[in-house]
Amino acid sequence: MAALTFTHQNLLHFTPKLMTSKPYLKPKRTKTKLSIQTIRESPQASFTDQFVLQLADSLEDSLPSSSSSSSLPLQKLRDNSSETLLSTQWPSRKDESFRFTDTSFIKNSDINPISHPPNSLDLLEVSRDTQFESFNFVDGFLVDSSFSSSNLPDGVYVGSLSKLSSEGILKRVCELLGDFEWGDLFWSVNGLGAPDLMVVYVPEGCRVENPIYLKYVAVEGADKGSKKMPLSNPRVFVLVEKGGEVGIVEEFVAKVGSECYWTNSVLEVVVGEGAKVSHSYVQNQSLSAAHIKWTSVRQEKTSTYELVEVSTGGKLSRHNVHVQQLGSDTVTELTTFHLSVGDQTQDLHSRIVLDYPRGYSQQLHKCIVAHSSGQAVFDGNVKVNRYAQQTDAGQLTRSLLLEPRATVNVKPNLQIIADDVKCSHGAAISDLEDSQLFYFQARGIDLETAREALVFSFGTEVIDKLPYSFVQKQVKDHVKALLKSRRKGSS
Amino acid sequence: MAWQIQCTASPPPLPSFPPFTLKSTSSISLPLPLPLPLPLPRSSRFRSTHAPSPRPIAASFSAVESTTSTDGLGNSKTPLLEVKGLTAVIAETKQEILKGVDLVIHHGEIHAIMGKNGSGKSTFSKVIVGHPDYEVTGGDVVFKGENLLDMEPEERSLAGLFMSFQSPVEIPGVNNIDFLHMAYNARRKKLGEPELGPLEFYAYIYPKLDLVNMKTDFLNRNVNEGFSGGERKRNEILQLAVLGADLAILDEIDSGLDVDALRDVAKAVNGLLTPTNSVLMITHYRRLLEFIKPTFIHIMENGRIIKTGDSSLAEVLEEKGYTAISAA
Q1: Which residues pair with A228 in a beta bridge?
Q2: Which of A208, A434, B139, B223 could bridge to B86 as Cys pair (CB 3.0-4.6 Å)?
Q3: Which domain of life is it from (chain A) (predicted)?
């Protein structure tokens, strides 16, 4: 359970930023808060509440007035979220799940929820950029795209909740949406602020051939260094019924020139019995942006969920993954690669909860920190509860620190209550292997080229798992360019 | 190549032959043999390399060497590799492994070093190619007239030295063909030739696969990842075939191979031999020497070469073991 902090070569202790403690601030309001969380020592809490309250107010103001009446599930979600927000504080370093992740960068900015989709000119630009048929979110708003739904099999619905005509699907969405006890403040912020809900529905036994490509584009963004931070809250709900199969590709990018913004995205996935969801998640945000994402997955028995993630962007990027097992014989695979080439924090918090027998879960997390003030955080929790006998759970994290003072905080942890299980986990933090470098040199390849090839190959193991070659290629080019820019910058 | 080496290593007062005018343009690009201890008068040039050795074994050495000076290629006898009194320690522990190795390899010769486990054979080959695990503490190594010990590992490779690793490392995420491509282009760049694009390179490499009896998918796998013992060795020889070398050091190329694979590998090596390039094999077993016939066999013990002889030495070894030789 102990967290490991490593710094490259020159051992530099991780210095937690001291919160400006305001001792004995008069308690402004007393919240009826039955806190299950750790008890705070100072009444600083009331200060944070105030901030969250303001944020909640501005989120409510930003909502399009028309949508409130239309969709019941969304209204329910907003009510619940709003209620939760009132009893949630802005996370500090004292919260275990934010121990190594400093969110003050967001808090100290002038957060401004985006209330309107951008003008049509910008939209045109976005759709022109798109190389592949995709569903586009622009600043959190789902825009009508070129994608023709006729390409989809019968019974499949992909689109806005507001345009959903099928009562049956609506009912299912209503039952399942937002039913999640593990969320944090950011989950609730999205629940309250999401202007719309995109629904991906795959009916029983239906196999969707082509992946559903979701492209999230940030258009409104302030200049780098500016205090302004437009906030968007895209939200997607995926429901795959019994025996269905679908691939979801999520890509996060920004319009050129948009630098400082905050994307706070949520994806909920329900994988029915024997169904399969293959999820690719590519995060290429601006290096000055804040990017927080939740992925919540519920898996019925004999279902399969596979995630491949490559995150390279954002000044602060955090991915929370929660996989909940709802039946036996599930297969869960999480394969993730994080890259910090600048003054960036890349954070993955994952939790896999196994409550039924014969589950299989495999997790590989890799990260490269290639900047002296770059940081990577990994907290990977696998819970093997009492009835999850004969679980096969493996977890491996490997980190590569390429600069002095580059930091990684890894906390791989397995909590096992069942007694008949096969579990393994491991963590390795290193520079490049000397033996591998020498192998290159022995064949006449200079050290610099060898290093570059090895650094790139470190991530390739994950990138190669992306199930679609066009995504693979795009990601490889992007990672290559980032590593190259770093090399130029340093020399 | 042999010509150029000869001319640069020759003492200045040599009369110039007509072909020199032609060769001289290219010989300018050759590194000058500055630290090279120049050979003594031609009549004793072989003896000279071992003459200073105060050890009694020097006698057997020069005896063998002098016999070769009369046969073989005869015309160019400037050594390809000349090792004198090489001592080396493990970088980390400072434990001395090589305790004064002497060895001379000429163009076109095949040498084998045999010896017990821990005698320093593999260390010797690693030190020659500049492995960072070892530190050279004394002695000279001259390769093609240049001081090898001053060169980085990649420079040694580009100079024409190749070592096949005993147990090559896996490099996950790097494609075999990409790796070969990178190495091959590094070589072309060094020679001042334009680099090859992926397609041209594929055309170049494709016929070489037959040589090591490998299928095309071999190229698309990650370097050594999940390779069997035999595949790893074949891959090393494929690299040798692609990159070429004046001196190929084959470190236990026979270990972990069944007879068929060994025959394949040996056939490939034999196929790569030319009158000018040389091979140094490191091995435990005579079996390999039946496939690749050595000109000389050296026995290594306790960080030194204690005996040198022709291929008949292997038979003595087979019959009487290393103890008989070290006692002799």
Answers
A1: A110
A2: B139
A3: Eukaryota
| Residue B120 region by backbone torsions, left for phi larger than 0, else alpha for psi between -120 and 50, else beta | left
Question: Could you tell me the pTM of the whole model?
Answer: 0.75
Residue contact B190–A444, C-beta within 8 A: yes
Answer yes or no: do B169 and A436 touch at CB < 8 A: yes
Contacts of A436 in chain B (CB under 8 A): 169, 171
ipTM over 0.95: no
Interface of B with A in 47-86 (CB under 8 A): none
- Closest CB from A438, A456, A458 relative to B153: A438
CB A280 within 8 A of CB A211: yes
Please report, as a single letter, which amino acid is at residue A412.
P
The pairing of beta strand A407-416 with beta strand A422-430: unpaired
Distance CA A64, CA A162 (A): 13
Enumerate the residues of chain B whose CB falls inside 8 A of the CB of residue A310: none
| Residue of chain A minimizing CA distance to B190 | A444
Domain boundaries, given as residue ranges, for chain A: 41-327, 436-491
Instruction: Locate B243 and state its tokens.
Output: 């990159």
Contacts of B164 in chain A (CB under 8 A): none
Give domain limits for chain B: 2-11+55-327
Q: Which homologous superfamily is B2-11+55-327 in?
A: P-loop containing nucleotide triphosphate hydrolases (3.40.50.300)
Residue burial A465-477, b: 16+ Cβ < 10 Å; e: rest: bbebeebbebbbe
**Is B130 within 8 Å of A423 (Cβ atoms)?**
no
Q: What angle do CA A455, A459, A464 make, to 5 degrees?
A: 135
User: What secondary structure letter does DSSP report for B85?
Assistant: E
What is chain A's pLDDT, residue by residue, as a tens digit (491 residues)?
445 555 444 333 333 333 333 333 333 333 333 334 444 444 444 445 688 989 999 998 888 765 444 578 888 899 999 888 888 899 988 899 999 999 999 999 999 999 888 776 666 666 555 556 788 899 999 887 555 566 789 899 999 988 888 889 999 998 898 788 889 999 999 999 999 899 999 999 999 998 999 999 998 888 877 789 999 999 999 999 999 999 999 999 998 888 899 999 999 999 999 999 999 999 999 999 999 999 999 999 999 999 999 999 999 999 999 999 999 999 999 999 999 999 999 999 999 999 999 999 999 999 999 999 999 999 999 999 999 999 999 999 999 999 899 999 999 999 999 999 998 888 888 888 899 999 999 999 999 899 989 999 999 989 999 999 999 999 999 999 998 887 665 54
Scanning the structure block, which residue is given the tokens 């200060």?
A: A47
Alpha carbons A229 and B314: distance in angstroms, whole number? 79
Chain B residues close to A447, C-beta within 8 Å? 152, 154
